[in-house]
TrEMBL record:
Protein name: Lrp/AsnC family transcriptional regulator
A Pfam family hit: HTH_24
Alphabetical list of InterPro entries matching this protein: ArsR-like_HTH, AsnC-type_HTH_dom, Dimeric_a/b-barrel, Tscrpt_reg_AsnC-like, Tscrpt_reg_AsnC/Lrp_C, WH-like_DNA-bd_sf, WH_DNA-bd_sf
Location of the HTH asnC-type domain: 6-67
Amino acid sequence: MINNTLDKTDLGILNILQRDSRTFYKDIALELHKSVTAIHTRVRRLEEEGYIKHYTVILDHKKAGRGLIAYTQVWIEKHSQESMKAFQAEVVKLREVMECSQMTGAFDFLLRIAIRDMDEYNVLYNEKLLKLPCVDNMQSFFVMSTTKNETAYVLG
């Protein structure tokens, strides 16, 4: 269980909404054998407590014109709180960067980048990534194919 305050019904709601966030409360209620009012109340509580951060649509990256996915490892030149924050403050402004995670291990940050093609990556690399503050080194890897891409956590 992800939290002692969540019961089987809460987990069921979260599992259903992760599959399809557009599922109607009446359909969730039917599946979980609860009233629509009970489901509505629980969903509102799950939102207020931060279990549900937001609702979204997942696009096909190729149809969205982002056919090339890159994972870029970033090394920061000086490990100080100021340099880490300076890097983070600027990298989040780049629309091509879909994720930025601070990492343990050999490198400091891992970026997931979605771009149209290698030409667009070249422009991004030379005109934006190299200009980020405190960057010492970068290494990129390009996705050839994806076997599994889940967005839902297995709960309960």
